[in-house]
Amino acid sequence: MGLIVAIADTTDVPADKLKDALAVRSQLAPLSPQWIALAGFAAEYYQRPLGEVALPGVPKNLRVTTTVALDRAIKKLAKLADTHDPAPVGMPTLNPEQQAAADAIGGAQGFAPTLLYGVTGSGKTEVYLQACAQVLAREPAGQILILVPEINLTPQLEANIRTRFPGVMLATLHSSLSEGERMLHWLAAHQGQARIVLGTRLAILASLPHLKLIVIDEEHDPSYKQQEGLRYSARDLAVWRGWQLKIPVVLGSATPSLETWHHALAKRYRKLELRQRAVSQATLPAVKLINLEHDKPRDGLTQPLIDALKLRLERGEQSLLFLNRRGYAPVICCESCGWISDCQRCTAFMVLHKGEHKLRCHHCSLEMRIPRHCPTCGNIDLQPLGRGTQRVEEGLQAMFPAARILRIDADSTRRKGSAQEAFDTVHRGDVDILIGTQMVAKGHDFKKLTLVGILNPDTALFSHDYRASERLFAQLMQVAGRAGRTAQTDGGSASEVLVQTRYPEHPLYGAIVRHDYDRFATALLAERAQAGLPPYLYQAMLRAEAPELAKALEFLAAARDCVPHEGITINDPIPMSMTRVYNVDRAQLLVESPSRPALQAFLKEWMTRLREMKSRVKWSLEVDPVDI
Ligand code: ADP
Ligand code: ZN
Ligand code: ZN
């Protein structure tokens, strides 16, 4: 099964390699030339073969299913598509800022990239929905694509769209659909029946013949970047698609990515602002820094945080503790000889999972029983070092035996549907203290939450990755934004965020206290400009992996010298900071240029040469890399 992307009279492909098309799926409308051009652009920009972009863009079942089954699916959709009244129901009255933003988006014509910059809880969702209503009313067949970072974490949005637009067919596209569902939803989009398509990053490649508006919610979120195979940025492709189709693209966030902020400051993107929380009397929480040097923690919690938790428990309000580290303890060690639980296959520690009596590597999934004594010196007193979510949970249970405590992280939500159940429990109010990783930071509208405690955020301040502070800032603003989303009731607590840190004087925390994204982002951009970093510079990263590091480095050194590269900086090959994963050593080579076209031209030639080298080392290229 293949795709016909163009028809030519002549070809360089040898005749014995050519195949006839035996049959064509004629019951399907062809993919539009615009869609083929999108796939072509992505393939060229990210330096991958067209087939690798185009084929995964089409659901697998469409390729393997029988004609009869396909006909049945098409008939089923035709029946479902019978009702078609795009009028929304139960829309709330927007506040003036929201209304102005919705009108600006809904009424925009032509290519109009727009940053919707609104503080957490400012009601960005209602702006999207109102803008959607306007587009649906104006464009009789118009389709809208809404991208979200992770659909399982944003079920509220899907439910909202369904109740507000009961006459509109909604298709969802994300990785937890079954193949059968995926084909049906893809077809609904491709045939124009679904007027709204809600999906994760992969939905950016959906076939949408009447696309009139693209919305990217939480546009700063790292999950818009695919981290394997075709390493594309769904956000960047969305903007390209908007430019191609001459339609508005909305990028929504309380903490925009620096790339987007940079475009907004340079007026290439229009900036719309929502300065206030949407619910009247709901205010941004007061952020306080607790100096760990002065307030020594007990079970990871300082006294001010313990007192604040007590107060919430007495008042029947919810608290959230954020700790971006799962497991019980990141490592166990022997205090007499200094042994620590390294992974044998990776440059990483084995994490203690106490409940399962196991050590587990979070990179290669190697598991082993907790040793009874030190493997080097025989000491039987092995100690957990540091603190993960499970250990904090244990400490909380001992401290507050009557409290209903729930932990949400990748371990507690492994079973399908369990994350959803856990979040429902929180929304129902059946939880007093919620403890979780970045899974709890995103987008949730928890109504009874008045306290957020942030444990241990400091490590990211000193990362070798220049993007770490941007990410930490966004994450802390997002998690802080979960507090105080409804009006403070009589006798209720004012919402607050307590950050436990060793570096309370760090400017990043100062900006969090002031809820000051603007100044922080603008300062970070100035630093990037001075240091010559993106978005002022364009990068690509060549990575190589081999059983021995020397082989990987050798390949990269050969790659560095194999083509002339005027105007392009090629750095020295270096081992990746986590060098070894699953018995494979990894190294990288960073390529930079102040000119995107120059970099693109170089990469094209370079890739051809590298493929010709036919090295046995496994390598891959990432354009606009995010993890340096
Ligand atoms: P954001 O995505 O900007 O963080 P949400 O869209 O989740 O914010 O909105 C925050 C809360 O405000 C939600 O509970 C939402 O229902 C409510 N809300 C939004 N707009 C309005 C409005 N115009 N009137 C009343 N409530 C609103
Ligand atoms: Zn020992
Ligand atoms: Zn490992």
UniProtKB/TrEMBL annotation:
Annotated residues for binding of Zn(2+) 1: C334, C337, C374, C377
EC assignment: 5.6.2.4
Residue span(s) of domain Helicase ATP-binding: 105-274
Cofactor binding comment, as recorded: Binds 2 zinc ions per subunit.
Pfam families: DEAD, Helicase_C, PriA_3primeBD, PriA_C, Zn_ribbon_PriA
Gene Ontology molecular-function annotations: 3'-5' DNA helicase activity; ATP binding; ATP hydrolysis activity; DNA binding; zinc ion binding
Cited CDD domains: DEXHc_priA, SF2_C_priA
Superkingdom of origin: Bacteria
Catalytic activity from the UniProt record: ATP + H2O = ADP + phosphate + H(+); Couples ATP hydrolysis with the unwinding of duplex DNA by translocating in the 3'-5' direction
Keywords linked to the UniProt accession: ATP-binding, DNA replication, DNA-binding, Helicase, Hydrolase, Isomerase, Metal-binding, Nucleotide-binding, Primosome, Zinc
Subunit description: Component of the replication restart primosome.
Protein name: Replication restart protein PriA
